[in-house]
Amino acid sequence: MRSIAIVRGVPDSFADALVIGETPTIDVDRAREQHAVYTEFLAANGYELTMLESDEALPDCPFVEDTAVILDTVAVLTRPGAEARRGEVRAMAGALEALMPTRNITRPGTLDGGDVLRLGRTVYVGLSARTNRDGINQLAGIAAQGGLETVAVPVGDVLHLKSAVARLDEETVLLAPSCVDRNLFSGYRIIEKVPEEAHLASVLTLGNGSMAATTTAPQTLDRLRHSGYDPVLVDSSEFQAADGGLTCLSVLIDSP
Ligand code: GLY
């Protein structure tokens, strides 16, 4: 199987996407342009794109990451913590069921894919405003069947675990210490986000090692470059305005 990236178009209603802070002004046309650059980055790195149709009734639907977690050969369809987002899972289920076996997170569990960070054989799951203990336990049960360990990570100050911690490579993470306990990641080399950029610095590392980073965190970008990384800059300001990082916009299935 080729590597596949599942993405979803930006509806006009994206201007009303959920936000945890002050209501921002989102330029939907600009978001669409940024989304196109993002998908070009994925295609240029060998991903075959599956573009799900946008849905005006689901303003947050471009943030597909929250609807599914890929655990090697099984896809876990989530039950997002925000009720308004639960309808997003249907289209993702249709795409994934054609590709691999699927499992479901069920009530009373809630799980957002943005809270799930895979590092080697460990699945770190954010205990957040969106993901609850039951959701983590359900995911842990499925992960254990594939020989994966699950670690719960309390998350504060940001929406999801992956807003706070990003995988840079097998040994290294980019982490905001104000949002998670860095001791939980003591087995990794840690590059800290510059504190004032904790909400802005976002990185997406692909299966082939290619990396994209947001344009809005120049000091953290300097730290990455000094540590030997050379990310492609991707402007995602309109998605950041809706609390979305670079991982949020795709579900990636890497060829074995
Ligand atoms: N706007 C992203 C979320 O709230 O889920």
Q: What is the residue-mean pLDDT, rounded to a whole number?
A: 97
What count of structural domains? 1
Report Rg.
17 Å
- In the CATH hierarchy, what is the architecture at level 2? 5-stranded Propeller
The DSSP helix count reads 6
The CATH homologous superfamily: L-arginine/glycine Amidinotransferase, Chain A
Number of strands: 15
Biggest sheet strand order reads 2-1-15
Q: What order do the helices and strands follow?
A: EHEEEHEEEHEHEEEEEHEHE
Protein architecture, described:
By secondary structure, this protein is of the alpha/beta class. The protein has helices at 28-44, 89-97, 133-145, 161-164, 218-226, 237-240; strands spanning 4-8, 48-52, 68-71, 74-77, 102-104, 116-119, 122-127, 149-154, 165-169, 172-175, 189-192, 203-205, 211-214, 232-234, 251-253. The strands form five sheets. Strands 2-1-15 form a three-stranded mixed sheet, sandwiched between helices. The chain has a three-stranded mixed sheet with strand order 3-4-5, sandwiched between helices. A three-stranded mixed sheet has the order 6-7-8, with helices on one face. The longest helix is centred in the N-terminal third of the chain and has 17 residues, at 28-44. The model has no long low-confidence stretch (mean pLDDT 97).
